[in-house]
Design a protein that fits this description.
Blueprint: H1 9-16, H2 19-29, E1 34-36, E2 39-43, H3 44-51, H4 55-64, H5 66-71, E3 75-78, H6 79-86, E4 102-107, H7 108-117, H8 122-143, H9 157-178, H10 185-198, H11 202-208, H12 223-247, H13 253-264, H14 270-287, H15 304-311, H16 318-322, H17 325-336
Antiparallel strand pairs: 1-2, 2-4, 3-4
Helix pairs in contact: 2-8, 7-8, 9-12, 9-17, 10-12, 12-13, 12-14
Amino acid sequence: MTKDLTTSTISRQNILNNNLALEKIESTLALGGICWCDKTFFTKTQVAQILTIDERTIDRYIESHKDELIKNGYKIIKGKELKSFKEYVDDMNVVDISRAPSLGIFSFRTVLNIAMLVTESEKAKLIRSKILDIVLDVMVQKSGGHTKYINQRDEDYLPSAYKEYNYRKEFTEALNLYLDANKWKYAKYTNRIYEIVFLENAAEYKKILTLTEKDCVRQTMYAEVLNAIASFEHGLAIEMKQASEKLERKLTTDEMDKLIESASQNPYLVPHIHDARAKMASRDLCFRDALHNKLEAYIQSVPQSDFDKFLGETSKSLEERLSDPETLAVFKRLKDR
């Protein structure tokens, strides 16, 4: 999947949703602008000057990418808003603003958005290069340079990992008690669940994330993915027990395969599975620069809340969380259930 900012909507939006990086980009580029209503805006004339392009070029991009630009702060003001804005504007920066019935203005995010779209400008190309450098620096700084375990910075990770560990034990015990198969059944059916939840087996997943043989796959998974796996394991363990007791014998592998196939189409599980796929595909591409080819159809832009979750004030390393009394209290409540 391309990450060329001029052609990839998702790559552009992942940058524009990253408020931590935007703050650094704004202070570094120092593009100026007009402070109005406690925010910085730019007129079309100013944007054209910044990118050294004709205003008609900007008009073409507004026409072709209108929805995207509006989403990222482009707006047309008129009436009282326009009258208020005129008080902050030097007439030399805007053509005929005194007689204009309306005016299109660009937020800082919109200016970056335009710079990521324009192919006719060398200045825009330089800005794109600077943007990518800053985004990478912020990612390294905030994650401590270890994106392999960036999933563990989510405050929901540890409770989800703990619950999944318990359901994992329940599932492996069920395989032992209710399935008539060889010793490879644990790895086989673990991979089967992975393939249903995120369409990859453990070996494929490790290769995509460039994990070593010693790396534990589940320690790199997001809370939502662990929750989907845990739900699947828990449901299968119960169904295996019920089916085995009804038949008064252990299940065959064919019977087990039918249970798994039925569970994969369970209407209660399907939404959680699709959510897990979208979260894994989108976050790994954004935070780990890892593309899950089999999940490409699920890739979306990463929302602002995810940047806060994994890089912002509420994110912490696993070591910090394990020393947090509130986290330990959560574990105690889970253990006492």
